[in-house]
Amino acid sequence: MTDRTPAGGGPGRDRVVETKRSQHAGNGGCLVGITNREELVDALTEAAEVEHGLLCQYVFAAVSLKQTADEGITWPQAELVRGWKRTLLEVARQEMAHLGTVCNLLTAIGAPPHMGRPNFPQPARYFTDLPFVLEPFSEPTLRRFMRFEEPVTPEAREALIAPAPLLYRHVGELYRDIADGLAALEDGTLFIGPIADQDDNDWSRGLHLCPVRDLASARAAIDFIVLEGEGAPGHRQGSHYERFIEAHRALLQELDADPDFAPGRPVASNPLTRAHHDAPAGGSLIEDSRTLPIAELFAVAYETTLMMLGQFYSFGAETAGQREQLRQATREMMSGVIRPLAEILTRLPMGEHLPGQTAGPGFEVYGTVQVSPHTENAWFVISERLARHGRQGLELAEEKDAPPRLRLCAENSARIGDNLTRAAASGFTTPSPALARRTFLAKAEPTSEGRIRPGRTATARYGTAASAGSPDA
Asked: Degrees (nearest 5) of the Cα angle 438, 443, 445?
């Protein structure tokens, strides 16, 4: 098996998730596996990045699909394509639930939630033989998705004295190592996280999370993730793996009947607004002057959504009502801003250097996604960003030939920010003395912020896209 030394926890921090192996008398050697809390946290952090990366790839493939017969497909083919899009988005929602459940696991053992990940593309950074790349819907893309979720029979591993990197070729293998580590480490002191700091909400259809309070519930959470991904032996129906197989089979059948069938738009692989040092393999740079600022708006809105998720899973000083408002706001960002912006981008050109190709959502992270440990300050920054996204989006919507849906995305961002500001007015359980209430609630006056584009030589604080000389830079 190929060796791999993964890097995680965000840009610029390399780590090795190690397993320890030792020899035991009587059986010729066995895998000891994860042997302490730190290794378990590292493995769960890797799992969070895997789930996060998978859902981005599934969403990208979904929004790359054509929608109507005026895009060069027949009406029966349009129905087939809509079914594939529905499948991909449903699977992506379930991956979001897996990410939330991994955050529950991290919280349960005393670690913070993890929403960071490196930018795309990543050549075999996680799996030993599969890259993490953003590619439009196609037969090879579906085959790669099948490999991500493919069931695997655990293999016997050699007993080694020296530590070895955690190696896996399928999602299930990683979770089996985590489950073994949980069982080996549980001595009554492993699950130290507050029981109340667990998300067990039904966010939407197909997005249910498992709370983790002890070893039994941790095992149930891992079983939930693995079974939803690969299914159980003899019962794969409804699993991600089986659904991708069905989509792949239907695609091959349609290609046999119509070799010219092209279900996807001509979306470029790994579209990026800039090069990123944590993705040295590079991608396809967006150069079209109309497309670029919209792609940047998507990126900063995506960053803000990650900040909202991070705050939600940090279980700060919010009241129960405020937590529900934050959850609702995050859900609305996903459906009312992130997804429509992603779809808008797949109809916009990459630039003259890539004639005929369109852009797509790069899911870029310009800086470290983090929020203040002071709840009130975190809410202020998030609300401030949402208001800015709204203003910048409205400016773009005023330009000639702007996509009609862009205005709605901007209005949604501003409305979500206003809702969070009103929710903050009820007060936090332990407010931050550093932030005056009236300052937080004061309505921001419109400012002249210029373009969304971040500086090309430096990343603004919080990854915000602000022009040089802006008060937000």
From this structure: 130
User: Backbone phi, then psi, for 202, in 5-degree steps?
Assistant: -95, 100
One domain for residues 9 and 42: yes
Report d(CA 253, CA 423) in Å as an integer. Answer: 52
pLDDT surpasses 90 at 264: yes
Please compute Rg for the chain using Cα positions. 23
CB-based burial of residue 237 (10 Å sphere; 0-12 exposed, 13-18 middle, 19+ buried)? Answer: exposed
| Residue that finishes a domain, picked among 218, 243, 265 | 265
DSSP structure string for 365-422: --S-----SSHHHHHHHHHHHHHHHHHHHHHHHTSTT--THHHHHHHHHHHHHHHHHH
Domain termination residue (choose one: 265, 284, 316): 265
Q: Residue 382 maps to which CATH number?
A: 1.20.1260
Asked if 219 and 179 count as a contact pair (C-beta separation under 8 A), the reply is yes
Closest to 397 (Cα-Cα) out of 387, 385, 414, 410: 410
Nearest to 391 by CA among 293, 273, 463, 311: 293
Its domain, for residue 109, covers 1-265
171: its two tokens: 């999602």
The pLDDT tens digits for 183-214 are: 999 999 999 999 888 887 777 666 788 999 99
